[in-house]
Amino acid sequence: NQRPRALSGIQPTAGSFHLGNYLGAIRQYVDLQETHDAYYMVVDLHAITVPQDPATLRANTRLAAAQLLAAGLDPERCTLFIQSHVPEHAQLAWVMNCLTGFGEASRMTQFKDKSARQGADRTTVGLFTYPILQVADILLYQADAVPVGEDQRQHIELTRDLAERFNTQFGPTFTVPAPHIVREVAKIYDLQDPTAKMSKSAPSPKGLVNLLDDPKASAKKFRSAVTDTDTVIRFDEENKPGVSNLLTIHSALTGTGIPELEERYTGKGYGALKTDLADIFVAWVTPFRERTQAYLDDPETLDSVLAKGAEKARSVAAETLAAAYDRIGF
Ligand code: ADP
Ligand code: NA
Asked: Which of 36, 87, 207, 290 has minimal Cβ neighbours within 10 Å of its Cβ?
């Protein structure tokens, strides 16, 4: 296979993915299937770095896989698997832990933010070494491209540093990956606070659009989205973040360019844009939810897709791990 290889992981933590996850990440996964030898995993090992409930984790991991398939990942065209089904991730992570400086790991801003929010006593060492597990995730597949958001840039830099360090110290073993900069990754903002990124940890559930929520409730959230006191529908992220966010979502879901939307809504009020967007979202999400449910209703098919994915992933991961083990003297 001569295609460049892509690798990305997504957490199963929240159960339902939200619209930001879909437009900012999952849709790129679907596109990359066409151009890359793509590996996608549900990162359940990462999910246990914070307190978790086993039954919930098990259910959410399957739910995440079902949603990825419903969103358009095709097991014939990519490799979809569950991280814990491939033990090489934890094995290579240990090796990478032993190559990482304590100070170097301490500089990871995402850890600093998360641990500050949780407090030191509730923060696990697993959360501290989370970026190093991520390094192993990427290097195991010799990934060329890693489609991630801006917030992951520092972790990709760490991956590049550790790959180069290993290669220099023990001989060429790992591909040094580049972050995959997608031309136009939509960044989606909270519908109630359009200056904050839409996030599963949103302060108010009214601003968060979960894909598996009742579509009627989501439609209501679009109709009551916070905008501004002006009346003109124009893309201006600085002065009109709410309207700009609605235009971004509209454009991403319909494929209509933003200038064309601005023209279409000339002389119309915010209410028209919000109502249209509510309808567009419901029309998209309804079949998405049905496809997700169909996978959940057919556990044998889902198990078989995930077992095949794990087998394919393991064949690549085991080869890389064996080479790395050999180089370091095991
Ligand atoms: P959250 O921010 O809700 O905790 P995650 O950190 O689990 O979401 O993100 C999973 C993926 O979705 C990442 O690739 C991330 O960049 C992307 N993503 C999350 N929120 C948004 C958003 N509001 N807009 C665009 N992409 C997003
Ligand atoms: Na996050």
From this structure: 290
Q: Is 200 a catalytic residue?
A: yes
Mark whether 187 is an active-site residue: no
User: If DSSP codes are grouped into helix, strand and coil, which group holds residue 179?
Assistant: strand
Q: How far apart are the first and last CA of the chain?
A: 30
Cα(295) to centroid of ligand 1, in Å?
Answer: 23
pLDDT tens digits along 260-283 = 999 999 999 999 999 999 999 999
- Is 97 marked as binding a ligand? no
| Phi (first) and psi of residue 224, to 5 degrees | -110, 25
Non-local (6+) Cβ contacts of 3 within 8 A are 35, 36, 37
Closest alpha carbon to 38 in 113, 114, 146, 140 = 146
| Structural contact between residues 4 and 36, judged by C-beta atoms closer than 8 angstroms | yes
Q: What share of the chain is helix, strand, coil (3-state, %, to 5)?
A: 60, 10, 30
Which ligand has its closest atom nearest to the C-alpha of 202? 1
Task: Assess whether 206 carries a catalytic annotation.
Answer: no
User: 302-324 as b/e, with b when 16 or more CB fall inside 10 Å?
Assistant: beebbeebbebbbebbeebbebb
Q: 274-325 pLDDT, tens per residue?
A: 999 999 999 999 999 999 999 999 999 999 999 999 999 999 999 999 999 9
Length of the chain: 330
ipTM of the complex: 0.94
The pLDDT value recorded for residue 1 is 59
Reduced to 3 states, what is the DSSP secondary structure of residue 271? Answer: helix
State which H helix or E strand residue 39 sits in.
strand 37-42
- Between CA 70 and CA 83 the distance in angstroms is 19
Tokens standing for 30?
A: 């679907």
